[in-house]
């Protein structure tokens, strides 16, 4: 677009850029570009003083577009957009050019070439700004209600926290009882509180909240709409369907315990049980520990059953992940055995002891109370057999140089991990991605640990991967805080950098719908006497996948229109100097 008044600002980044790029050459080249009325360098463009100086220039020179050549937009895109907005400039008339990670740091020993590349990149940024147009965020009014799927510990805590913030909450549980796996577990670490008591307390608190509606024996069977404005269908008891209108969704569907296959570490032999099965036995034990009317004097725990598995012919798709909680759960269980019957000998056969954090205290206490820990190699797992009617566990002890030892046992406890729940229907309804382990996948485990690719849908607890009870609660409250931040202010602003259809040119061939990875973002609508494509701006993520497949170039991506991209290409192919 002709007539633009553009400012080009180049950052030294305290030497991170200027030590390897001739910034004066870059500034001089930028100054010659069409539409550029001012070009200036800054020691640190992100500093408050530099931002104030840029605001002064923007206002005095009446600029309607700026380009800042600095670090990655991942670091300071929000910073500079906010600065542009403070000056009165439309924030989408700002372009950030990465000449640090993509130029100076990549070409530390090639100053001349790095300078030439920086000139090309800045020219391309100027071209993008020259052909850009001001854009406005899409604002959607939010519904002050939330759906929580799953009524285990994570789901119950999430529902209570949302209700305490004044929102209407719909809590949907697939089972007929709330609590998930916790009630059957008995005493929980780290405080030895009974799982059933904990769930009962949370359940009673939920029942007392007038703004929480609990559906048991129910499942989510439909979803439409977008963040802040979802329409959800819930089927109750396999028959009645209820329509709900919510602004956010928290998924807390929990996990299933790993079920060993027959013969796996002796499973199926009399006296071989899983850790959850043993916990139920322990919860009902009175006095001396007995199993099938026989006193238990020796227990052998076999760790990593169903976790960190190696592929075999019988199991070509093993669980490669660590289930995190199992080591601590097994050690805690052995301490409960010590408290109930101090005469029981206990052996722990492990690969790596992962009682991380303060749970290391439990490991040390178990050692002091007589538990014996035997480490085995990954490629030499223990063998559980029953010769002569008595259980025997053979294992190669790592501390003895791999020497095999045999441990007679009255009970073998397989320390089973967490497996993903069967959530294929829910994943399909909510359009949530599944990771390699079968759990719901977050956007980024460190930076966005409870957010999903679907705006307004959050995951928590063991639904997104193995977690301890404390970690599940923490993630559920994190999901609540994210959801509440969207809903409590009454609206949500979405990026305008989305695809847009020229309905006059569109002939509806359907290629854009096929290319779109986001359910419902592209649909066929009737306009006048013809069918055309419509891109839902609240569902589109601006990936641009639909743009190149359109045979008549009827789709543009705001912020990266065809005119902008062509201008950038022209700038990149010109000689640097």
Distance from N terminus to C terminus (CA atoms, Å) equals: 24 Å
- Give the strand order, joined by hyphens, for the main sheet: 10-7-6-14-27
Q: For the CA atoms, what is the radius of gyration?
A: 30 Å
The outline comes out as: elongated
Oligomeric category: single chain
Under the CATH scheme, which architecture of the largest domain would be assigned?
A: 3-Layer(bba) Sandwich
Sheet/helix structural class = alpha/beta
Q: CATH superfamily of the largest domain, called what?
A: FAD/NAD(P)-binding domain
Description:
This protein has 577 residues and is of the alpha/beta class. It has four domains: 130 residues, Rossmann fold (3-Layer(aba) Sandwich), CATH 3.40.50; 182 residues, FAD/NAD(P)-binding domain (3-Layer(bba) Sandwich), CATH 3.50.50.60; 159 residues, FAD/NAD(P)-binding domain; 64 residues, Alpha-Beta Plaits (2-Layer Sandwich), CATH 3.30.70. The chain is built from 14 helices and 32 strands. The strands form eleven sheets. Strands 10-7-6-14-27 form a five-stranded parallel β-sheet, with helices on one face. Strands 16-25-19-20-21 form a five-stranded parallel β-sheet. Helix 5 packs antiparallel against helix 14 and helix 6 packs parallel to helix 7. The longest helix has 20 residues. The protein is elongated. The mean pLDDT is 94.
């Amino acid at each position: 677009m002709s007539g633009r008044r553009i400012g080009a600002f180049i950052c030294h980044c305290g030497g991170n850029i200027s030590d390897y790029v001739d910034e004066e050459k870059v500034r001089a080249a930028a100054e010659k570009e069409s539409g550029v009325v001012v070009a200036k360098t800054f020691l640190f463009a992100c500093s408050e003083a530099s931002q104030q100086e840029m605001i002064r220039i923007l206002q005095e020179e009446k600029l309607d577009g700026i380009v800042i050549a600095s670090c990655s937009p991942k670091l300071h895109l929000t910073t500079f957009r906010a600065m542009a907005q403070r000056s009165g400039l439309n924030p989408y008339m700002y372009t950030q050019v990465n000449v640090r990670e993509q130029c100076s740091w990549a070409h530390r020993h090639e100053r001349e070439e790095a300078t030439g590349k920086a000139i090309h990149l800045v020219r391309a940024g100027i071209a993008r700004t020259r052909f850009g147009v001001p854009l406005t965020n899409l604002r959607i009014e939010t519904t002050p209600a939330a759906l929580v799927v799953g009524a285990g510990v994570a789901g119950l805590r999430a529902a209570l926290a949302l209700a305490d913030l004044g929102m209407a909450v719909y809590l949907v549980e697939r089972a007929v009882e709330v609590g998930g796996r916790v009630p059957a577990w008995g005493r929980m670490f780290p405080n030895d509180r009974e799982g059933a008591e904990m769930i009962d307390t949370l359940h009673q608190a939920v029942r007392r909240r007038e703004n929480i509606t609990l559906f048991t024996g129910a499942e989510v069977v439909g979803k439409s709409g977008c963040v802040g404005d979802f329409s959800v269908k819930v089927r109750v008891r396999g028959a009645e369907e209820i329509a709900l209108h919510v602004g956010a969704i928290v998924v807390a569907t929990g996990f299933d315990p790993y079920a060993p296959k027959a013969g796996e570490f002796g499973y199926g032999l009399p006296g071989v049980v899983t850790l959850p099965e043993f916990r139920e036995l322990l919860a009902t034990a009175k006095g001396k520990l007995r199993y099938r009317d026989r006193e238990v004097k020796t227990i052998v725990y076999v760790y990593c059953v169903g976790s960190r598995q190696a592929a075999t012919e019988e199991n070509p798709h093993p669980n490669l992940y660590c289930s995190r909680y199992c080591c601590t759960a097994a050690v805690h269980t052995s301490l409960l055995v010590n408290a109930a019957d101090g005469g029981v000998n206990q052996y722990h056969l492990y690969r790596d002891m992962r009682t991380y954090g303060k749970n290391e205290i439990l490991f040390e206490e178990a050692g002091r109370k007589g538990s014996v820990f035997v480490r085995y190699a990954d490629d030499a797992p223990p063998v559980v057999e029953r010769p002569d009617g008595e259980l025997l566990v053979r294992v190669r002890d790592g501390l003895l140089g791999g020497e095999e030892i045999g441990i007679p046992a009255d009970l073998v406890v397989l320390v089973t991990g967490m497996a993903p729940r069967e959530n294929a229907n829910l994943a399909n309804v909510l359009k949530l991605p599944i990771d390699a382990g079968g759990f719901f996948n977050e956007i980024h485990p460190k930076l966005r640990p409870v957010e999903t690719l679907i705006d307004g849908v959050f995951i928590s607890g063991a639904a997104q991967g193995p977690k301890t009870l404390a970690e599940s609660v923490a993630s559920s409250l994190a999901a609540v805080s994210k959801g509440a931040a969207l809903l409590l202010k009454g609206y949500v602003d979405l990026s305008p950098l989305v695809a847009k259809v020229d309905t006059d040119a569109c002939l509806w061939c359907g290629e854009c719908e096929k290319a779109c990875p986001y359910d419902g973002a592209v649909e066929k609508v009737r306009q006048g006497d013809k069918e055309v494509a419509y891109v839902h701006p609240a569902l589109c993520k601006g990936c641009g996948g639909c743009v190149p497949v359109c045979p008549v170039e009827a789709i543009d991506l705001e912020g990266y229109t065809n005119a902008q991209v062509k201008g950038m290409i022209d700038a990149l192919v010109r000689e640097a100097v």
